[in-house]
Amino acid sequence: MSRLVVISNRVQPPAKGAGGNQGGLAVALLAALRANGGLWFGWSGETTECFTGEIDFQRDGRVVTATIDLERQDVDEYYNGFANKTLWPLFHYRIDLTEFEREFDSGYARVNRRFADTVVPQVEPGDLVWVHDYHLIPLGQELRDRGIANRIGFFLHIPWPPTGLMLSLPSHRKLVESLFAYDVVGFQTADWLDSFRDYVLTQMGGSEGADGRLTAGGRTIRAIVAPIGIETAGFEEAATSDAARFARERMYMSATGRSLIVGVDRLDYSKGLRERFLGYERFLSGNPERQGLVYMLQIAPPSREKVSAYQEIRADLDELSGRINGEYADIDWVPIRYVNKGYPRGELAGIYRAARVALVTPLRDGMNLVAKEYVAAQDPADPGVLILSRFAGAAAQMQEAVLVNPYSAEEMADAIVTALSMPRAERIRRWEALIDSVRREDVHWWCDLFLTALRDAAVKEKACAP
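Now predict its structure.
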């Protein structure tokens, strides 16, 4: 079997273990690498005065991690700048928050060149190279320019915007053209693939062939839908661990008989947290008989704290949660518990299992693995109810959830009432359908789906950009 070389913005050393405070991408990639063996290359998260390209290697079983430090200017322009002030908001349909700065664009290109220069000596003939996410869209072309003829795949973990929004990016044509250096390009849902296809056909004069093949500028790629899953078996096991049992008992004891509604999201404007709080407030105001019988726990670890939009949302949520609590709290009840820190997987699994309802209501999301984790953590005999945004990528696979429009406070409030009132038989029926999908289409299924497409990709000449 070919060795797998994974390249992503950040790298989670496997020695830290899956029980750590990892994001969904880190857990997914570690699972893929452990199954296939190989190298995981990316940024360490640390800065250096002068970029040297020195690599820190760590081995854990079949997985080797290789990390580099970046200069502060790199982080400001590539990561905080183009990736998170330009591409992230644009790809999540928030053009009002999108910043276009030339130094961001140049920093993005520079770091992608540095990644390519550093990783090329580590790539062996026959390796499958798998590049991840919006930080590294041009990397495939940089690798081709340096003579890498291996099969290279790219997977986008976030939405792809409609063509009308994409055209607002000054460098949109160059960015999309660079994707044609890959053999296979994967998207979370058919909607995002359709948006990409529309751009290629209408803006690049491209053509469409069989089996998802798109041709433009003399290059052909295969574009596929490959929705990412979780390491379901591992998460189900974590839900019965000692850490999970302890966390669940803590929740039961602190709830004093009240029903728990949980939300777990990175602190980000795309997650719809403000809209979620307002929907919960509408539920409280419209159902006074339920006040004091439920409470909402929102776990929201901070992220990208040097980006002003993230500072603003944190201040906004601090104010909003304080106002709601001030309006509705009683001497023995607080309607919202709002926590700005993350928890290890075992503890999260226990919190999920204790929750009667989960609110996963992003305004726009590539997938959202919290929805799948919540389902995997449930007690089969007495499962909770998942309320899921129609605009999360997971909605395409999880139709048995209670689907909502997160922009509507009334619809959110009605969904909470529906979930809290749902009979056990219906909760079990919905959960069984959801867990069947989560188990069947797990991270190993996703990895096999993408890598099979990459291995089967036709060998072809790749024209290099001038």
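The chain has a mean pLDDT of 93.
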